Automatic annotation (TrEMBL):
This is PorZ N-terminal beta-propeller domain-containing protein. Signal peptide: none annotated. It comes from the Bacteria. Keywords: Signal. The lineage of its organism: Bacteria, Pseudomonadati, Bacteroidota, Flavobacteriia, Flavobacteriales. NCBIfam families: Por_Secre_tail.
Length: 760
C-alpha cells in the first residue's frame, strides 16, 4: 500500500509540475473544424474541436491554446469572450466549462454542470449570453447562471413544461426580458424576477422548435428549426424570410446581424435589410460548410467545418484569406512515422473489426521544423483510408502510405507520384465482393536490412508481399500457417536483425517468417500454442535486446529472443509479472494495446485504447510514467499510435482527439563520440531545466567536475543522452563557473572532454 500511495503522490506532483512547466510537452492540433467564434474589439476567438486560437488582424498574430496550456481534450461546443471582464469562457459537449483569465493566462475548470444529476447527453453547452456581469449558459437541459465576478454558478432554470428539462439553444436580452430559443418554443421571463428558477415565471411566446434568437438594436430576431427567420412584433414572432438551408448560427455585432447556413452567410443591418450574401464558392468552393460568422472592425470572419477560419473585408469586393494556424488536416491521426527531420501522418482508419466503413478521403500530412505540409486528397490518386505510413530509413525523401482500400501510395520529394494496385504490381484485391469489386487492403509495412519493403495484403491467400530494391514484387502464400487466410487482417509487421519477419494478425496471433528457409511459425492463444492472451494482435516492436514485444487486444507478451527462430519448435511468449500490493500481477492485464515504441534507453512506450500511455523500464518491471487526460496534456486516453524521434528523443503520441509529444531525453545511441554536444550552454540564471549531454555511446561513463577537479556528478548513459540537474550529487546547486565533462566509452577505447558554463 505504501508503494501505491507513493505512486499516487508521484502522479499528483507530476501533474502539478507539468502544469507549471510546459517545456516537456508540445501540441500538434488541427484547427480546421471551427465549432464557434467570439470576438473582442480587436481580435476574434475561434474554437476548433478541442483547441482555441486568437487572431488579431491589426497585429497579424495568431495565438493558440491547447491541452498543453490546460484545455480539455473534450469536444468544444461554445466559446465566449467577455470584453468587460477580460475572460474567455469555453463550453464543452460534456458540460465542462473552462474560464481563461486573459491577464495572467490562468485557467479555471468548472465542473458544476458535469456533476449535475442529469443524463450525460443533456449536459452540452450551446451558448453564452452576458448581461450585467452574469453569463446565461444555454444547455440541453435548461439555463444556468454564471457570475463573472465570483466565477461561481448561480440558479439553474428548468423552463420546460412543468419544470421539465428542455434543450435551450440560445438566449437573448431584450427590453427587460430574457428570451430563450428552445426545442419546444420561445419562452421569456422578466430579467429582474428573483424567482426565475420557478418554471411558472416563464411564459410561452411562440411554440415550435427554435434554433436561435438574437437582439440587434431595436429588433429581436429568431430562427426556427426549418430555417425560417422571424421578427418580434412586441407580442410574438412573425415569419420574415425562409432560408434555403437550416441556420447553424446567428449573432449580432456592430449593428449587423450575421446568419449562417452551411452554404451561405447573410449580413443584415439593424433594419433587417440584407447588405450582403456570401456563398461558400466565394470563400473557397462548394465542398466547405460554414459553421459561424462574425465581424471585428471592418473584417468579417467565417468559420468552416473543414478548412478553418476565413476573413475578408466586411464590405463586398475583398478576397477571402485563410487565417487558420497551420496544423495537421484533422485531429484523429490514425498512424504516423518519424525520422530524424520529419514526421508523416495519415488519417484513414478502420474499426476494431478492420472495416474501413467510412472510406475516408483524406490526404497526407508532413511536419518539419518549417511547419506543416498538407497534401490534399486530390493529389493522392484517390487512395482512400490510408492507415499506415513509412519513411525509407535509407532515404528520408521516399515515403509509402498504405491504403486499406486502394493499394500503396509512393511519395517522393513530398509529391505523390505512383499508386501501386492490383493492375500494376504484385498487390491483390480481395475477391469476396465478386469479380468486378476492387478492394486492395494494404496495411502494415516494414523495411528489412537490405532495403526491401515488406507489405501485408489483407484477406487474400498471398498476404505477404515484398517490393524489392530493384522494383520487382515478390509474394508469399499465408495459407499454410493461417486457419483462413482470406479472412485474415494484419496490423503490424517488423523485421529483426536476422531478417525474419514478424506479422501481427487478427485471428492467428503472431506469424514469424524466414525468407531464406521459407519457414513459417506461429504463436497464438493458449499456453501450448504460444501463450498469447488473445489471437488478435495489434502491435509489435523489437527492442534493443532482440526481444519481441507483442500488444494484443487483451494484454502484453514478450518473446525473449527472436534469434532462436530457427532452433525453436513452438515459439512461446511470456507475460511480464510485477509485484503490486505484495501480489504478483500481470503487467497491463486485459488492456487493449494499440501501439508500442522503444526509445533510445530501451524503455517501452505503450499506448492503449482507453487507458492512455504507459512508459515502462526496459524489462517492464517499473512503470516510470502513466500519462492520461487527468495528469498530462493528452487530449484523449484513446491512443492510435506512438513513434519516437531517436535523434531528439521526442515521443509523438497520436490520439483520436489530437497529437502531442513528450520531449524525452532517451535518444538513439551513436557509433562514436564525434558528435557529442551539451545544451543549453551556457546555463543562464533564468533557466530552470537540466543540462543535457547528447550524442553519446551506450554505456558511456560520464564524470562532471568543477574547474579544480572536484567531482560533482557521475553516471553511465543508457542510450544517447544523459541529464544533469546541475547539483552536486543532488545535495545542492553548484555555483557559477565552468564545469568539465569527461566522457569515455565502456571499454575505455574512446574519450571526449566537453565544457559547460553555469551562470547563477
Amino acid at each position: 500500500m505504501k508503494e501505491k500511495f507513493l505512486y499516487i503522490l508521484f502522479l499528483f506532483l507530476f501533474q502539478f509540475s507539468f502544469s507549471q512547466n510546459k517545456l516537456s510537452w508540445e501540441g500538434y492540433f488541427s484547427f480546421n473544424e471551427i465549432k464557434d467564434i467570439s470576438e473582442s474589439s480587436v481580435s476574434v476567438y475561434a474554437a476548433s474541436e478541442n483547441a482555441l486560437f486568437v487572431k488579431n488582424a491589426a497585429a497579424n498574430t495568431n495565438k493558440t491554446i491547447t491541452t498543453v496550456d490546460g484545455l480539455s481534450g473534450q469536444t468544444i461546443s461554445a466559446v465566449y469572450y467577455s470584453e468587460t471582464f477580460k475572460k474567455t469562457i469555453v463550453g464543452y459537449e460534456n458540460g465542462l466549462m473552462i474560464v481563461i483569465n486573459e491577464t495572467d493566462g490562468s485557467m479555471l475548470k468548472v465542473v458544476d454542470i458535469i456533476n449535475k444529476q442529469l443524463a450525460p447527453n443533456l449536459k452540452k453547452i450551446n451558448h453564452f449570453m452576458e448581461h450585467n456581469g452574469l453569463v446565461y449558459v444555454s444547455c440541453d437541459f435548461g439555463i444556468v447562471q454564471f457570475n463573472l465576478t465570483t466565477l461561481k454558478f448561480g440558479d439553474t432554470y428548468f423552463i420546460g413544461d412543468n419544470g421539465a428539462e428542455i434543450s435551450v439553444k440560445q438566449t437573448a436580452f431584450f427590453n427587460g426580458f430574457i428570451y430563450a430559443a428552445t426545442s419546444s418554443g420561445i419562452r421569456k421571463a422578466d430579467i429582474t424576477n428573483p424567482n426565475l428558477n420557478d418554471f411558472s415565471q416563464w411564459s410561452m411566446v411562440n411554440s415550435g422548435d427554435w434554433s436561435s434568437i438574437e437582439n440587434i438594436d431595436t429588433e429581436l430576431i429568431a430562427i426556427n428549426s426549418t430555417g425560417y427567420i422571424h421578427r418580434f412584433n412586441s407580442n410574438n414572432f412573425v415569419a420574415f424570410f425562409q432560408l434555403p438551408q437550416v441556420a447553424v448560427d446567428m449573432r449580432a455585432k456592430n449593428h449587423n446581424l450575421f446568419i449562417t447556413t452551411p452554404g451561405f452567410v447573410y449580413v443584415y443591418n439593424n433594419q433587417m435589410v440584407l447588405n450582403r450574401q456570401i456563398a461558400n464558392t466565394q470563400v473557397l468552393d462548394n465542398t466547405i460548410n460554414f459553421t459561424c460568422a462574425t465581424a471585428v472592425d471592418n473584417l468579417i470572419y467565417i468559420g468552416t467545418k473543414e478548412k478553418g477560419l476565413f476573413s475578408s473585408t466586411l464590405t463586398a469586393g475583398g478576397t477571402f484569406t485563410n487565417t487558420t494556424p497551420k496544423g495537421p488536416e484533422r485531429n484523429n491521426i490514425f498512424s504516423l512515422d518519424v525520422s530524424a527531420n520529419a514526421l508523416w501522418a495519415v488519417y484513414g482508419d478502420y474499426d476494431t473489426n478492420y472495416n474501413p466503413y467510412d472510406l475516408d478521403s483524406y490526404g497526407v500530412s508532413k511536419y518539419t521544423t518549417s511547419g506543416w505540409l498538407n497534401i490534399p486528397y486530390s493529389e493522392v490518386y484517390d487512395a482512400k483510408s490510408m492507415t499506415r505510413i513509412i519513411i525509407n530509413p535509407a532515404n528520408e525523401k521516399l515515403v509509402y502510405a498504405s491504403s486499406f482500400f486502394s493499394g500503396l501510395l509512393r511519395i517522393e520529394d513530398d509529391v505523390p507520384n505512383f499508386l501501386y494496385n492490383e493492375k500494376n504490381s504484385g498487390l491483390e484485391s480481395l475477391t469476396s465482393g465478386g469479380p468486378n469489386y476492387i478492394d486492395v487492403r494494404i496495411n502494415a509495412t516494414t523495411f528489412d536490412k537490405s532495403g526491401n519493403l515488406w507489405v501485408t495484403n489483407s484477406r487474400i491467400k498471398n498476404g505477404l508481399k515484398v517490393l524489392r530494391t530493384n522494383g520487382e514484387w515478390g509474394s508469399y502464400a499465408m495459407t499454410s500457417v493461417l486457419d483462413n487466410a482470406e479472412e485474415s487482417n494484419y496490423a503490424a509487421i517488423v523485421s529483426d536483425k536476422s531478417n525474419v519477419k514478424w506479422i501481427a494478425t487478427n485471428r492467428d496471433g503472431v506469424i514469424g517468417f524466414d525468407e531464406v528457409s521459407k519457414t513459417f511459425k506461429k504463436m497464438t492463444f493458449g499456453s501450448d500454442l504460444g501463450n498469447l492472451p488473445s489471437a488478435d494482435v495489434r502491435s509489435l516492436v523489437i527492442d534493443t535486446k532482440n526481444q519481441l514485444w507483442i500488444g494484443t487486444t487483451k494484454g502484453l507478451r514478450v518473446l525473449s529472443n527472436v534469434g532462436n527462430f530457427q532452433n525453436s519448435g513452438q515459439l512461446k511468449s511470456n507475460a511480464i509479472i510485477i509485484m503490486e500490493d505484495n501480489l504478483a500481477q500481470e503487467l497491463l492485464y486485459e488492456q487493449f494495446i494499440t501501439s508500442i515504441a522503444v526509445d533510445g534507453s530501451n524503455n517501452k512506450w505503450i499506448g492503449t485504447s482507453d487507458s492512455g500511455v504507459f512508459m515502462v523500464s526496459p524489462n517492464g518491471q517499473e512503470t516510470k510514467y502513466h500519462f492520461t487526460i487527468n495528469n498530462s496534456p493528452l487530449p484523449s486516453n484513446g491512443i492510435n499510435d506512438i513513434k519516437i524521434n531517436n535523434v531528439t528523443g521526442e515521443v509523438f503520441i497520436a490520439t483520436n482527439k489530437g497529437m502531442v509529444s513528450f520531449k524525452g531525453i532517451a535518444t538513439g545511441v551513436n557509433e562514436d563520440l564525434n558528435n557529442v554536444y551539451v545544451y543549453p550552454n551556457p546555463v543562464r540564471p533564468t533557466y530552470s531545466g537540466t543540462v543535457k549531454v547528447a550524442g553519446l555511446l551506450d554505456k558511456a561513463n560520464i564524470k562532471i567536475t568543477d574547474i579544480e577537479g572536484n567531482l560533482v556528478y557521475e553516471t553511465t548513459s543508457e542510450g544517447g543522452t544523459i541529464e544533469w540537474d546541475t547539483t552536486a550529487f543532488g545535495r545542492y546547486k553548484v555555483s557559477s563557473g565552468v564545469y568539465m565533462i569527461f566522457i569515455s566509452a565502456q571499454d575505455g577505447g574512446e574519450t571526449k572532454v566537453k565544457k559547460v558554463m553555469i551562470i547563477r
